[in-house]
C-alpha cells in the first residue's frame, strides 16, 4: 500500500510543481520589470533579472530548467539577499519544524483526551461543556488567539517572552517558553476539530455489537475503550488531522510573524514583500511536499487502524 501511495504522489508532485512555477506568470505586466521595481528600474537591472530567472527562454524550457534544479534542491539565488534559497530555507526549517512538532504534541493527546471524555458519556454535563468550548475555539483565528496569549501571559503576567525564538539545542527551557504560545495559538482549533470528530466516532462505536461483546467478556474500561472502540472510531479524526496540516501551515505564516519566529512562514512573507520569486516558489513547493507527506502518513495510519484498508 505504501509503495502504491508513493507512486501516486509522484505525478501529483509534478503537477503541483508546475502550478507553483507558474506563479511567476500571475505577476501583472512584464515579470522582470515588476520584480525590479517597476518602470523606474534601469534596463540593466531588468535584463539581469530576466537572465537570472531564465525569462528569455520559452515557458516550458524555463519550467524544465527550474524543475531540474528543484529535484537537486537547487532553487537558485534569492533576488533580495543574493544567497542560495536552499541555504536560507535550511536555516529556517528548524524553527518551523520545532513549532510544528510542538503543535502536534498538543493536538494529539488533548484531542484524544477530550474526545474520549465526551464520547464515553455523550449528552452529559462534561460533554456539553466540551462541545460548547470547542465550538467557540473553532471560531477564533490563530493570530487572534496568539495576540490574546501575548496580552495575558507576556504583558499582564510577565510569565513568557512576547516574541523571539531560542533553538532547543542551545536552551531547552528558553525554547519552551518561546514556542509554547505560538504552538497553543496554532493547536487550539486543531484540538477542537479533531476532538469533536473523535467524540462523534466514539459515540457511534460504543454502541456497536463488538463493544458490547467486549464488555460482556469482562473487559475493563481501558481494554474496551482503547483496545477496541478507540481504534475503530479514530479514522475520521485521523482524516481531519491530515487535512489540518494544510491549515496549520497556512496559519504558521501569520503566527510566526506575530511572534518573530525566524521560520519558513516569516521567510515567505518577506519574500512576497520583496517580490523574491525564487524564494516564493521554493517555499510554496516545500509546503506542498509537507502536505503530501502528511497525507501519506494518514494513509499509513489507515492501514494500521483498519486492516481492510491495508489490504485494499
Can you give a write-up of this model?
The protein is an all-alpha fold and 312 residues long. Helix content is 76%, strand content 0%. It has helices spanning 2-21, 31-36, 43-52, 59-71, 85-120, 125-138, 142-156, 172-205, 209-216, 221-233, 235-258, 264-273, 277-305, 307-311. The longest helix is centred in the first third of the chain and has 36 residues, at 85-120. The protein is globular, with a radius of gyration of 24 Å. 33% of the residues are buried.
Assembly level: single chain
**SSE pattern, N- to C-terminal:** HHHHHHHHHHHHHH
Q: Whole-Å distance between the termini?
A: 8 Å
Question: Major beta sheet, specifics?
Answer: none
Which structural class should the secondary elements be placed in? Answer: mainly alpha
Summarize model confidence as the mean pLDDT: 80
* Total of helices: 14
- Output the radius of gyration: 24 Å
- Shape descriptor reads globular
Low-confidence stretches: none
Amino acid at each position: 500500500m505504501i509503495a502504491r501511495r508513493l507512486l501516486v504522489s509522484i505525478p501529483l508532485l509534478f503537477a503541483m510543481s508546475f502550478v507553483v512555477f507558474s506563479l511567476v506568470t500571475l505577476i501583472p505586466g512584464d515579470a522582470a520589470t515588476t520584480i525590479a521595481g517597476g518602470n523606474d528600474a534601469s534596463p540593466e537591472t531588468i535584463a539581469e533579472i530576466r537572465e537570472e530567472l531564465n525569462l528569455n527562454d520559452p515557458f516550458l524550457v524555463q519550467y524544465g530548467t527550474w524543475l531540474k534544479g528543484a529535484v537537486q534542491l537547487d532553487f537558485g539565488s534569492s533576488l533580495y539577499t543574493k544567497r542560495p534559497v536552499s541555504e536560507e530555507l535550511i536555516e529556517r526549517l528548524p524553527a518551523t519544524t520545532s513549532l510544528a512538532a510542538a503543535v502536534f504534541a498538543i493536538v494529539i493527546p488533548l484531542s484524544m483526551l477530550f474526545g474520549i471524555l465526551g464520547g464515553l458519556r455523550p449528552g452529559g454535563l462534561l460533554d456539553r461543556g466540551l462541545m460548547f468550548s470547542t465550538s467557540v475555539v473553532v471560531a477564533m483565528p490563530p493570530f487572534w488567539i496568539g495576540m490574546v496569549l501575548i496580552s495575558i501571559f507576556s504583558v499582564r503576567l510577565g510569565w513568557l517572552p512576547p516574541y523571539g525564538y531560542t533553538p532547543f539545542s542551545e536552551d531547552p527551557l528558553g525554547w519552551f517558553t518561546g514556542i509554547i504560545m505560538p504552538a497553543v495559538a496554532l493547536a487550539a482549533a486543531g484540538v477542537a476539530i479533531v476532538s469533536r470528530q473523535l467524540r462523534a466516532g466514539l459515540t457511534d462505536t460504543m454502541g456497536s455489537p463488538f463493544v458490547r461483546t467486549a464488555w460482556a467478556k469482562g473487559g475493563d474500561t481501558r481494554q474496551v475503550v482503547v483496545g477496541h472502540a478507540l481504534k475503530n472510531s479514530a479514522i475520521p479524526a485521523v482524516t481531519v488531522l491530515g487535512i489540518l496540516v494544510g491549515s496549520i501551515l497556512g496559519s504558521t505564516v501569520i503566527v510566526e510573524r506575530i511572534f518573530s519566529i525566524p521560520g519558513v512562514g516569516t521567510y515567505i512573507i518577506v519574500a512576497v514583500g520583496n517580490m523574491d520569486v525564487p524564494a516564493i516558489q521554493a517555499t510554496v513547493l516545500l509546503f506542498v511536499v509537507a502536505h503530501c507527506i502528511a497525507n501519506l502518513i494518514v494513509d499509513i495510519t489507515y492501514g494500521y487502524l483498519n486492516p481492510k484498508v491495508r489490504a485494499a
